């Protein structure tokens, strides 16, 4: 089986997926790829070429078609419309599955095209409620759960982006202080906005009167879910924690500085507890359940290499 038709979806094994862009030249140098990798892990150039290049081609195709549709609609309306708003890509998935790495890589790959060189990235952690507020609400141990975000502000942000508002701003989170900062990221006329976060594909909640509200993903042009077995993700989470202990946590300014002196065994136990009590329940209850809402699922194997890709044809 290299390709399987599943109703509105098509599922392609890695080799069949890779073939879809086999004549496209690799746009990034080995140095550029190295700069994109996360905490010292290898980001294999073969992986970039075989998995992320076809994905970039598919998204570029969607952008071209969206632009054509916008022009056709403008002609139908018989009056000039404001400039087309940015193409918005959502990237969802568990903590530690590789969303940030995927998002950074896509930003670089998509920006290589003269059709859409301005690509900006926003992570939803900036929309987490400040720690003081989380503490007041008893949510400090629920970071990453839907209720730990300022969902109204996130929705306002995405609506502004898709309404063509200029210089839309998003708050920035610090993994060092483990809290929201006073910094903001300002969108400067981007062609593409990538919105990366655990819950970005979540369905709408209900309003006070019981009617369904709007969901952030209602404003996405393309939604990606990064997927892997929870056993592998737990291992990646623990491995990343062990590395952070020697790097970021070693900084006295780090909220987790106390973890920097843990032994290997102690650190592994602590990371396992954080996974088992916060990140795994969130994945099980709130994140995995949104996979079917993605336009495209990247399924990784134990070494982060993508094994198959499933996407919605319509
Ligand atoms: N494609 C990849 N190849 C190799 N390692 C990866 C890849 N994607 C992620 N990783 C590693 O897995 C860990 C989690 O990735 P990260 O992007 O930080 O996840 P997330 O943003 O989902 O929490 C990091 O240590 C990162 O370096
Ligand atoms: C900041 C996060 C909630 C991720 O936020 P996202 O950008 O995906 O919205 C997550 O990385 C996190 O810190 N979770 C808390 C539990 C833990 O420390 O692993």
TrEMBL record:
A cellular component term, taken from the record's GO annotations: cytoplasm
Biological process (GO), any one: coenzyme A biosynthetic process
Source species, domain of life: Bacteria
Protein name (Swiss-Prot/TrEMBL): Pantothenate kinase
One GO MF term: pantothenate kinase activity
Binding site for ATP: 93-100
Domain Phosphoribulokinase/uridine kinase positions: 88-230
Catalytic activity: (R)-pantothenate + ATP = (R)-4'-phosphopantothenate + ADP + H(+)
NCBIfam families: panK_bact
Pathway per the UniProt entry: Cofactor biosynthesis; coenzyme A biosynthesis; CoA from (R)-pantothenate: step 1/5
Subcellular location: Cytoplasm
Annotated organism of origin: Aeromicrobium terrae
Pfam families, sorted: PRK (PF00485)
Enzyme Commission no: 2.7.1.33
Keywords: ATP-binding, Coenzyme A biosynthesis, Cytoplasm, Kinase, Nucleotide-binding, Transferase
Enzyme's top EC category: transferase
Protein family: Belongs to the prokaryotic pantothenate kinase family.
Gene symbol of the encoding locus: coaA
């Amino acid at each position: 089986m290299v390709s399987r038709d599943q109703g509105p979806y098509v599922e392609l094994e890695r080799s069949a997926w890779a073939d879809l862009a086999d004549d496209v030249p690799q746009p990034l140098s080995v140095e550029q790829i190295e700069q994109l990798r996360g905490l010292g892990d290898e980001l294999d150039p073969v992986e970039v070429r075989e998995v992320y290049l076809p994905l970039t081609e598919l998204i570029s195709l969607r952008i071209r078609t969206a632009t054509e549709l916008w022009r056709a609609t403008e002609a139908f309306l018989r009056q000039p419309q404001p400039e087309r708003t940015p193409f918005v890509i959502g990237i969802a998935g568990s903590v530690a599955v590789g969303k940030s790495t995927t998002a950074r890589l896509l930003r670089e790959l998509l920006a290589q095209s003269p059709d859409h060189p301005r690509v900006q990235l926003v992570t939803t952690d900036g929309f987490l409620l400040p720690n003081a507020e989380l503490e007041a609400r008893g949510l400090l141990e629920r970071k990453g759960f839907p209720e730990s975000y300022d969902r109204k502000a996130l929705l306002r942000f995405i609506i502004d982006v898709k309404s063509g508002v200029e210089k839309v701003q998003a708050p920035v989170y610090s993994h060092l202080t483990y809290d929201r900062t006073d910094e903001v990221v300002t969108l400067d006329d981007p062609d593409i906005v990538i919105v990366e976060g655990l819950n970005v594909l979540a369905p709408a909640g209900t309003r006070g009167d019981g009617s369904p509200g709007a969901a952030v993903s209602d404003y996405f042009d393309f939604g990606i879910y990064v997927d892997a077995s929870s056993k592998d993700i737990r291992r990646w989470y623990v491995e990343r924690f062990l590395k952070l202990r020697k790097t970021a946590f070693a900084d006295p300014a780090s909220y987790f500085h106390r973890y920097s002196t843990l032994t290997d065994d102690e650190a592994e136990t602590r990371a396992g507890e954080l996974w088992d009590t916060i990140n795994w329940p969130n994945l099980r209850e709130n994140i995995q359940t949104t996979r079917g809402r993605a336009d495209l699922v990247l399924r990784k194997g134990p070494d982060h290499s993508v094994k198959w890709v499933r996407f919605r044809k319509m």
